[in-house]
Structure formats: C-alpha cells, structure tokens
Amino acid sequence: MQKKWKLIFGAVIAVAIIGFIFTQLTQGLHVVVQKVEEQDFTRSFTEEGVVVAEGEHAIRSLYTARIERLLVQEGDRVEEGDLLVVLEDKDLSYGLAELEAGLSGLNVELEQARENQATAERNYNRVLDLYEAGVAVEVELEEAESQLSQATAAVAGIEARQKAIVSQLERLRNQMANYRIYAPIAGIVTRLEAEEKGLASPQVPLLTLLNREEQQVEARILTRDVYQVSPGMPVNLIFKLADRDLEFPGKVTGIASYAEETLSSLGLEEERVKVTVIPEIPNGVKIDPGYKLDVEFITEVISNALVVPGTVLFTYDGEDALFVVEEDRAQVRQVTTGAETRREVVITSGLEEEDLVILDPQLSGLGAGVRVSYQINGAS
Q1: Per CATH, the architecture of 61-88+179-205 is what?
Q2: pLDDT at 3
Q3: Burial 315-349 (b: 16+ CB within 10 A, else e)
Q4: What is the DSSP string of 49-111?
Q5: Of 87, 150, 271, 310, whose CB count within 10 A is highest?
Q6: Which pLDDT score is estimated for 118?
Q7: Is 369 within 8 Å of 330 (Cβ atoms)?
Q8: Are 370 and 28 in contact (CB under 8 A)?
C-alpha cells in the first residue's frame, strides 16, 4: 500500500515538472518592456539655489522718541502701507494744543486789529477831505496818518506772528505724522531691533524689510557648465515639500563675471560662478528669503526623439545594442545613440516607434532568440 502511494506522489511531481516545462516553452521568459514613443528630450543639469531678496529697506525713526506700540514681529509678512511702529507723541500733542490755542487767540486779535485799521483809514480819509477843503490843519492830517500807519503796522505784526504759528503747526503735524511709521514696501520683517517702550533714534534701524515682491534665486554653478547658461534662459525650479515636489518656472537674469573658489561636499576645491534667476512663484505658495530649492538649467531640447533608459544599453560586437521583442522572442538590435543624460539616451537610428525594448538586459536566461512573454512598464 505504501509503495502505491509513493508511485502516485511521484507521478504528480512528474506531471508538475512537465507542466512547468511546457509553460516555459509556450509562454517564454517573462520580461518588462517599454514601448518606444516619440517625445521631447531635455538635457539639463541641476544645482542648489537659495532664495534672496533683491533689495532690503532699513526702517528708521526720524526722531528720538519712546516706542509706544510695536505692531510687528520678526518674520512677519507685511504689505505696503501697513503700520509698523507708533512712537510716543505726548509732548508734541501738548505743543500742538498750545500752538492751536495761540493761533485761535491771534485770530481774534487780528480781527480787532483789522477793525482798528479800517477805522483809522476812514478817519484819515475824512481828515484829508477836510484838509483839502481848508477846514482841517496839517497837524490834524499828520495825526490821522500816524494813527493809520500804527494800525496797519499792528495788523502786519499780528499776521506775521500768525504765519509763524501756522508754520510751526505744519512742522509739528508733519513730525507727529512721522511718529507713525508705515511699511514703504511689501516685505518680510527681519533684524527687528525695536522693543515696545524702548527708545527709537535715527542712528539705529528699528527693523529691516526684505523686499517680498522682488525675490530672486541665486545658484552657483561649476565653471565647466557656465558656458551653457545665458541671460533669458528658462529654468525649472523645484521646491521640495513634505509630500511632493513643487515645480515652477524661472528665468536667468544675471551671470557673474568672475568665479569664486568653494569647497564641495567632499571637501574638494571647486570654481563656481553665481547665476541669478527670477522665479515665477505660484500664488499662495510661501517661499521666503533663505529657502533652498533646486535649479534645473535646461541646456537642450530635442523634439520628437526616441528615448530609452540608459540602463537598457549594452555592447554587442563593439556597438551599442539593446534587446527588443519581435514575434514573442528577444532579439538584439544594434543602435546609434545621440544626446544623453544620466538617466536617458536618444536613439538616432536602429529603433522605430512602437518597438518594445526590454528594460533589464541582465535578466537571467535572456538571450537572442529566447521566447518571452512581456508586460509593458507601468501597465497593470
């Protein structure tokens, strides 16, 4: 009985082996392929860039005064016209009130002086008429003329005092207006030195505003690459977020005329040139000075190219070659290569659209003429 079960078990194993061999012979080696399609090929290199503010504004007080209110903190983003600092203006307010009271009193005094002047002028004209008629004597005319001169002088003196007070009031009001300090630009608050209840003076900036509307990106590229870069050249900017990479365009606006010696991450000396880029930061995205991002310099674009991963290539009879699937069998195809990056290669001859390129030429069992079954990369 035991011998019978051994025979049955052996038969099952034999059937399984035969089935496996049959499947391999009929289905072939399983490979992953890429269908060749025309696409735009981009050659580029990438360097790290840092966001900087194109301009900065030191915010100062024009006067020495105590800080009554400080309305911003380090790192705040402000808009043009936002109130930043309020200085204490009690003394100015008292002085303004005194001047306004003095001006009010002068207005009353001036009104009375002008009435006196008008009365003196009427009296002078009356005496002049009498003098010309031979009724009044010269002494009376001289007296009337003197009274008119005195009244006119009194009006002129009050008007001069009035003008001086108005000038003082205007100066004081302008000064009080400068005790409220506003943002001259949209920017980011940095180097905040001001403290509430502290003392402001013209010699020490209260804070600095980095120009938020005129940010730029600075990248330093190797001298061997700088010849590929020119003003106006488009670039891709990549800002790494926690869950994704945010890409947006930029444009080269400046290339330094000299190189600077730097150290690489491996401690090797390198010569690099500063390149300035203006970014087109998407609305709603917060990227401030000091933030780092990648700058991809696009040096060449080839339209309608046949592109394959560089890892599919190998040497065959001294030429570049790759495996393609033809009639369910792997075949070696010699090709001519063109432009390339670290990941991709343009094939200029030897391939056509819709060809199926085997992605792993080192796959065990793979060779010319081997039957294969395939799955297109990315297809479910």
Answers
A1: Beta Barrel (2.40)
A2: 55
A3: ebeeebbbbbbeeeebbbbebebebeeeebbbbee
A4: EEEEES-EEEE--SS-EEEEEE---TT-EE-TT-EEEEE--HHHHHHHHHHHHHHHHHHHHHH
A5: 87
A6: 95
A7: yes
A8: yes
Superfamily (CATH) of domain 45-54+214-299: Efflux pump adaptor protein, beta barrel domain (2.40.30.170)
Q: Does domain 89-177 have CATH number 3.10.450?
A: no
Q: Give backbone dihedrals phi and psi of 364, rounded to 5 degrees, phi first.
A: -60, 130
In DSSP terms, 32 is beta-bridged to: 375
Radius of gyration, alpha carbons of the chain: 45
Q: Which residue has the tokens 């009244």?
A: 151
- Mean pLDDT confidence for 64-91: 92
Domain boundaries, the chain: 29-42+304-376, 45-54+214-299, 61-88+179-205, 89-177
Amino acid at 190: T
Entry pTM: 0.50
CB-neighbour burial class of residue 152 (10 A; exposed 0-12, middle 13-18, buried 19+): middle
CATH (one of 2.40.420.20, 3.60.15.10, 3.40.50.150, 3.30.390.50) for 29-42+304-376: 2.40.420.20
Q: pLDDT per residue over 254-267, tens digit each?
A: 999 999 988 877 77
CA distances from 103 to 152, 160, 177, 294 (A): 20, 12, 21, 66
